[in-house]
Amino acid sequence: MIKTAITEMFGIEYPVICGAMMWLCKPGLCAAISNAGGMGNLTAGNYESEEDFRNAIREVRQLTDKPFMIGLTLLPSIRITAEHHKMYVKVCAEEKVAGIEVSGTPIDRVAGKDGVAMLKDAGVKLFHKVGSVRHAVHAQKAGYDGVYAAGFEEGGHPLDDDVTTMVLTPRIADSVSIPVVTVGGISDGRSLAAALTLGAQGVMMASRFIATTECDVHENIKQELINRQEYETTMICKSLGLQGRALKNKVSAEVLEAEKQGGGLDAIIPLIAGQRIKEAWELGQVDNAPLMVGQSIGHIREVVSCRSLLEKMHDEAVKQLRKTMTLVQ
């Protein structure tokens, strides 16, 4: 078995963490990943009330006795407000979740020192997803327990420094003493082995978990990811200062055209609205919304169970690491 600071910190079998995915990281998928030996993710933004969020956490605990992460995205949003962010922090502390994946604004700037202290006192591990050394260093100084080194290849919202996983992981690993988890381009055992070789203590992946039997998304979406290649994503919303990597489709092309024409929020928001994305995932409307996936879709070839995916990923990583050792004379 591969043992790292991440497997030891959380008591999990494999150093593989699911990343936050709006509308997709719900109790079923979260528990399935944790039960399979990885670290599931329950994305807070799926829930707008304290009651619903707390009930979702408790539902996961009915499905698994294993640890899981809460995905907390602190970015500008029409639907999710600053009050929601504070509520998520409070509930996570009260429910004593295993860990929080923070994306966007540092949690200490949203919840304050008291909020961070409350989480720490509850034993909640804090990880910040960063795309630069400077942000990783801030995370360590702010008391985070680890960082996600998120390369440009990732789906969602990579930092506009545009640094790739291959470069970013060792740069951050050399710059902080807290555990580093590699994000971006992760999909199989080879990428897990590569991340460990670069200095990471684990990996985070999201797009690959969409094409699993336990992910509650329309089969059209899963098949579309299988059919697509690594070059079939594009960067949208750069003009808004919130670039995102999405699947190339009709809507992402419309967003890019609106940006080219100088369209602002009024022109772009209707195209990227959360409800529109939710319906696309559920109804299999591949062209009707920006589907935020990473370049790792080029490695997706089949739909498998979370357990099968993680077992194969681990075994392949061990094989690759051993193979590499045979090259050393």
Task: Describe this protein with a few key phrases.
2 domains, alpha/beta, globular, two-stranded antiparallel ribbon, 8-stranded parallel β-sheet, 329 residues, TIM Barrel
Number of helices: 14
Report the order of strands and helices. Answer: HEHEHEHEHEHEHEHEHHEEHHHH
CATH topology of the largest domain: TIM Barrel
Instruction: Please give the domain count.
Output: 2
Shape label: globular
Low-confidence stretches: none
Q: What is the strand content?
A: 5-15%
Q: How much helix is in the residues?
A: 40-55%
Spatial sequence of strands, sheet with the most strands: 1-8-7-6-5-4-3-2
Give the tally of β-strands: 10
Judged by helices, strands and strand pairing, the structural class is: alpha/beta
CATH superfamily of the largest domain: Aldolase class I
Radius of gyration: 19 Å
Intertermini distance: 24 Å
Largest sheet: 8 strands, parallel
Averaged pLDDT: 95
What is the top-level CATH class of the largest domain?
Alpha Beta
* Level-2 CATH architecture of the largest domain: Alpha-Beta Barrel
Helix-strand blueprint:
Layout: H1 5-10, E1 16-18, H2 27-35, E2 40-43, H3 50-63, E3 68-74, H4 82-95, E4 99-104, H5 107-121, E5 125-130, H6 133-141, E6 146-150, H7 165-173, E7 180-183, H8 189-197, E8 202-205, H9 207-210, H10 219-227, E9 233-236, E10 244-247, H11 250-260, H12 265-272, H13 274-283, H14 306-325
Parallel strand pairs: 1-8, 2-3, 3-4, 4-5, 5-6, 6-7, 7-8
Antiparallel strand pairs: 9-10
Helix pairs in contact: 2-3, 3-4, 4-5, 8-14, 11-12
